[in-house]
Protein 1
Amino acid sequence: MPFQPAMRTHALLVFLTPLLPFAFGWDPTWESLDSRPLPKWYDDSKFGIFIHWGVFSVPSWGNFSGEWFWQQWQGSQAPAYDEFVRSTEKPGFAYADYARRFRAELYDPSEWSDLFARSGAQYVVLTGKHHEGYCLWDSKAATPLTWNWNAMDVGPRRDLVGDLSSAIKKTKSVTTGKALRWGIYHSLYEWFNPLFLADQANGFNTSLFRDQKTMPELYDLVNQYEPELIWSDGHEVAPDSYWRATEFLAWYATNSSVAKTAVWNDRWGAGIDCNHGAYYTCMDRYQPGKLVEKKWENALTIDPGSWGFRRNVNGLGYLSTEHIIHQLVETVAFGGNMLLNIGPAADGTIPAVFWDRLLGIGDWLGINGPAIYSTTTWKVAQNQTDEVYYTFKESAKNTVFAIVTRWPEDDVLVLQAPGPLALQDRTHVTLMGMEQELGRLPWKLTDNGLAISIPPLSPAKIPCQHAWAFAIGGLSRSVKDGNSANGIRGTPIVPSDK
């Protein structure tokens, strides 16, 4: 295919973009980038949707990690995958043949966006390109090497990234009324790309793949679709110096059109994860179980064994709505965001099990959202012996939220915090979702802690099914510092009266 003049201009702009002077803003060093304050929108959001979608959505099958179908077929899992392909395809079938059946003929970005808005999620991250190298956008102008391996040339013949980007940016959350934020996942490497394999064989002392593939793609994604979040992956095979990660991120945070609100994760080279980034993911399904200083994210899957959709999983194989809500509560109490993954089918539909889980979470957040969104960690994060988690909101007159994941026995909730230094005569407690019906709940300070009495509630009256948030207001100023209590996980501080 001839390299057209328009393509030359586009490619030249992509090449020159990282060379723009950093006249102000952030230097291309981890020290500088790590000192950049995290944009407030990300910390306030608490809950996002991850979408793994690509050619792997056609076979949608696997022993684990359906999105790794191609790699597993060529690797240690080959016999099982050989048998699957032999039994479902014609002789001589190759993985690239699946792309023609990745048609997305029922893809409705507005329907997707509406579902995400109703789920209570505040941001959405789509796989622009996974490790298989297939691009879900018209990438060949910026990266000619993606010719015939992108969504415009083979398969949907449609800009899947661009269509969802437009829909997300026009959609507001049902639970907060805020516009949804838009993010893109991008794999730095590709399993079987000859240029990558050549650079790898040369000990990454050559950079053909980086210069002709990875970097042009990243700049193109930002310039075309303006994602406020870049979720990088496939980082561990090469050092960050090979990827020139800090140069790209300095441009993204300084000179891109979304520089002021740009956010990125920590997967930008071997050893960078859990060490450098606007926030940390550290590992899939990361859950430290304690308060940590750095902002972090728990990226997890509704199908515990896969990011891409798998047809060979029955209904019992998915996380329950209750389990996911408990994960969200624990994640937020310890200072993280939860990024919950779904895997659409190849035709562009979202399987019913994902609808069920997302709408269930949305119903819960519709009642308990104030205890989640725009909260901060408290010095007390969790009762050690009870299933109670705490969040704090200074903007709500220093309100502490105690979220319980098991209904208290005998309708009496005993909290180890707030402690006596924070409690006052004007302290009041309400059960979220029942503020009008129950009003302020009676409480008293006992030897075991703060005891809150709850009137018996019938199943028809209880505000939600899976976890319950109690708002504790009218506390002393010292509550901001936590109040020490024995047996509480976190870093409690005994406040002064000053």
Protein 2
Amino acid sequence: MQVISTEALKTFVNENIDEFHNNKARILTGIQLKKVLLSKNPYLFKAKNLNSANDLINDVLSAYLYSSEEKVFGDFLEKLAIFVSESSCGGRKSSATGVDLEFEDDGKYYLVSIKSGPNWSNSSSMARQIENFRKAVTVRRQNYPNDNIIPVIGICYGKKKPVDKGTHKVVMGQSFWHLISGDTGLYKQIIEPLGYKAREHNEEFIQEKSRIVNLFTQEFVEKFCDNGNINWDKLVEFNSGNYPTTPDAN
């Protein structure tokens, strides 16, 4: 493998990190209080003793935005990983379902599904991933029957050591970035350029988020508060009320 230069890494990140921030900002565009409240657990709000409308809105909006940001940043990390592999050993974005990256190194052909973090799966999604690997391996063997094909779930951060599951391998954190680059220190090198224009973008985002919090708080008070107190029955009914469960129920 050819070790990617620090300058090439910085250039790629600097040229592409704006897309992450722009996509993050779009999350706030057209956002509605109804959508945010319906996506979160009202019982948790009560259990956390969120009795101030402003505190509740800040909490629920932050949780909503965090889950959305994770997806947006995961897309960026996937692009970064493909660029690193492409630069290091001629890797390429895969067209196979459930596979993001393909590359060859040291006589092995890797089919990699890139995950941003370790908590990505449940039993059904894991079964689906294994089936996607099976199909991708079958297609590859049709044209290259002698290839040593290794399916890999590559996780961008995490502490666990590499594991061979039989159907696939799992590598995360430093081991993942080393696999696709041949550089044991790359996982540290990528952190610095990610801060490019971060303060500028975050100031704009925080200002817009504050505006949304104020608007949502005003709307929440009008719809779910009585004399300044949160009407929890009304909030829970809005979030979860659906009785009768069938059209012909009595």
Protein 3
Amino acid sequence: MLTKEQIKKYIESGYSECPYCREEDIQGSMVEIDGRSAFQEMSCLNCHKNWNDIYTLVNIEEAGE
């Protein structure tokens, strides 16, 4: 189970390294949207752990016409 400290370090790293082993060899599946939630299953090619990145809407911008 991920600790709060591991989660914090993962977010602070810019989601660029595994929260378990800290290696940068990670990959993500397609982002899935379910109602008001969005998430992406992530995996580490080094330690083979999996986790979900959970996304929230923080802003919107006008689309080009």
